[in-house]
Design a protein that fits this description.
Length: 114
């Protein structure tokens, strides 16, 4: 059973930064891709950033230039978020994809405290 555990969320003022972590129960290199998604209240879950095992990264337009996804150790993926805005308030989820199966974490809340 694949387990993903997000951490690093919290209250942050506009313009601040946060670094989210996603710890996986197995090597992230066993998955085709690792990604971060977010879901704001009353809205659909949306892709924030994705990193493939081949080294490709994709970002949503709102994340480009502010957010960075990285793989710094074999069992974790990170999302560095800079210049946070009120509209970044959401629950952020980690997703691992292996072939046709998707695995999700429980999410971590990011809230604008301004």
């Amino acid at each position: 059973q694949v387990q993903l555990l997000e951490s690093g969320g919290g209250l942050v003022q506009a313009g601040g930064s946060l670094r989210l972590s996603c710890a996986a129960s197995e090597s992230i290199y066993e998955f085709n891709s690792m990604g971060w998604y977010r879901q704001a209240p009353g809205k659909e879950r949306k892709l924030v950033a994705r990193s493939t095992v081949g080294g490709t990264t994709n970002y949503a337009d709102f994340a480009k230039g502010r957010f960075t996804i990285s793989r710094e150790n074999p069992n974790a993926v990170y999302l560095q978020m800079l210049g946070l805005k009120s509209e970044d308030t959401a629950v952020y989820y980690c997703k691992a994809k292996r072939h046709s199966r998707n695995y999700w974490g429980q999410g971590t809340q990011v809230t604008d405290s301004s």
